[in-house]
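JOB MANIFEST
job_type = single_chain_structure
chain_count = 1
residues = 114
[input]
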Amino acid sequence: EMRAMLLRELQDLVPVVKDRCMSEGWSDMLSGQQLQPQEVNLYHLTHHYICPRTAPETGITVRLQRCIEGVELRPGMVVAQVDPSSSRVMAVAEGTLLEANVAAGELLVEVTRA
Protein backbone atom coordinates (compact mmCIF):
# COMPACT_ATOMS: atom_id res chain seq x y z
CA GLU A 1 0.00 0.00 0.00
CA MET A 2 1.32 3.40 -0.96
CA ARG A 3 -0.22 6.47 0.62
CA ALA A 4 0.88 9.78 2.03
CA MET A 5 0.79 10.56 5.74
CA LEU A 6 -1.92 12.85 7.01
CA LEU A 7 -0.97 16.02 8.85
CA ARG A 8 -2.36 14.64 12.13
CA GLU A 9 -0.23 11.51 11.68
CA LEU A 10 2.85 13.69 11.26
CA GLN A 11 1.86 15.65 14.38
CA ASP A 12 1.61 12.36 16.30
CA LEU A 13 5.31 11.81 15.56
CA VAL A 14 6.45 14.95 17.42
CA PRO A 15 6.75 13.17 20.81
CA VAL A 16 8.49 10.23 19.13
CA VAL A 17 11.06 12.55 17.53
CA LYS A 18 11.63 14.43 20.79
CA ASP A 19 12.24 11.19 22.68
CA ARG A 20 14.18 9.11 20.17
CA CYS A 21 16.32 11.84 18.64
CA MET A 22 18.02 12.42 21.97
CA SER A 23 17.96 8.88 23.40
CA GLU A 24 19.24 7.27 20.18
CA GLY A 25 21.68 10.06 19.28
CA TRP A 26 20.33 10.86 15.81
CA SER A 27 22.77 12.61 13.51
CA ASP A 28 22.59 14.20 10.09
CA MET A 29 23.39 11.60 7.43
CA LEU A 30 25.60 13.91 5.38
CA SER A 31 27.43 16.01 7.97
CA GLY A 32 27.38 13.53 10.86
CA GLN A 33 26.40 16.41 13.15
CA GLN A 34 24.32 15.49 16.21
CA LEU A 35 20.68 16.56 15.79
CA GLN A 36 18.37 18.30 18.20
CA PRO A 37 14.66 17.38 17.93
CA GLN A 38 13.73 20.79 16.48
CA GLU A 39 16.25 20.24 13.64
CA VAL A 40 14.82 16.90 12.48
CA ASN A 41 13.33 16.98 8.97
CA LEU A 42 11.53 14.26 7.00
CA TYR A 43 14.82 12.92 5.60
CA HIS A 44 16.16 12.45 9.13
CA LEU A 45 12.88 10.90 10.31
CA THR A 46 12.88 8.49 7.38
CA HIS A 47 16.52 7.49 7.91
CA HIS A 48 16.45 7.06 11.69
CA TYR A 49 12.87 5.99 12.39
CA ILE A 50 10.92 4.74 9.37
CA CYS A 51 13.59 2.82 7.44
CA PRO A 52 14.84 0.68 10.34
CA ARG A 53 11.25 -0.38 11.05
CA THR A 54 10.50 -1.32 7.46
CA ALA A 55 13.67 -3.29 6.68
CA PRO A 56 13.16 -7.01 5.98
CA GLU A 57 13.57 -9.20 9.06
CA THR A 58 15.65 -11.79 7.23
CA GLY A 59 18.83 -11.38 5.25
CA ILE A 60 18.64 -10.76 1.53
CA THR A 61 21.10 -11.78 -1.15
CA VAL A 62 22.30 -8.93 -3.33
CA ARG A 63 24.39 -9.08 -6.46
CA LEU A 64 27.55 -7.01 -6.63
CA GLN A 65 27.87 -4.64 -9.54
CA ARG A 66 31.48 -4.15 -8.63
CA CYS A 67 33.68 -4.68 -5.62
CA ILE A 68 36.12 -2.09 -4.34
CA GLU A 69 39.60 -3.44 -4.94
CA GLY A 70 41.66 -3.94 -1.82
CA VAL A 71 38.63 -4.05 0.49
CA GLU A 72 38.34 -7.33 2.36
CA LEU A 73 34.69 -8.20 2.89
CA ARG A 74 34.19 -9.73 6.34
CA PRO A 75 31.02 -10.90 8.08
CA GLY A 76 29.86 -8.30 10.58
CA MET A 77 30.96 -5.26 8.61
CA VAL A 78 28.40 -2.61 7.77
CA VAL A 79 27.71 -2.15 4.07
CA ALA A 80 25.75 0.62 2.37
CA GLN A 81 24.09 1.01 -0.99
CA VAL A 82 24.24 4.49 -2.49
CA ASP A 83 22.56 6.00 -5.51
CA PRO A 84 25.36 7.02 -7.88
CA SER A 85 22.99 9.20 -9.90
CA SER A 86 22.11 11.36 -6.89
CA SER A 87 23.95 14.60 -6.20
CA ARG A 88 23.73 13.78 -2.47
CA VAL A 89 25.92 10.87 -1.44
CA MET A 90 23.54 9.32 1.04
CA ALA A 91 22.93 5.67 1.80
CA VAL A 92 19.80 4.26 0.18
CA ALA A 93 20.07 1.09 2.25
CA GLU A 94 22.37 -0.18 4.98
CA GLY A 95 22.98 -3.59 6.44
CA THR A 96 25.34 -5.98 8.12
CA LEU A 97 27.27 -8.42 5.96
CA LEU A 98 26.46 -12.03 6.86
CA GLU A 99 28.31 -13.87 4.06
CA ALA A 100 30.35 -12.88 1.02
CA ASN A 101 30.92 -14.89 -2.12
CA VAL A 102 32.89 -12.37 -4.17
CA ALA A 103 33.72 -14.90 -6.89
CA ALA A 104 30.00 -15.37 -7.54
CA GLY A 105 29.35 -11.67 -7.05
CA GLU A 106 26.94 -12.22 -4.18
CA LEU A 107 26.59 -10.84 -0.67
CA LEU A 108 24.13 -12.01 1.97
CA VAL A 109 23.16 -8.90 3.90
CA GLU A 110 20.89 -8.41 6.89
CA VAL A 111 19.23 -5.14 5.94
CA THR A 112 18.97 -2.76 8.89
CA ARG A 113 17.79 0.30 7.00
CA ALA A 114 16.00 0.23 3.65
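[summary]
The beta strands are 60-63, 78-82, 91-101, 106-113.
The chain has three helices and four strands.
exit_status = 0
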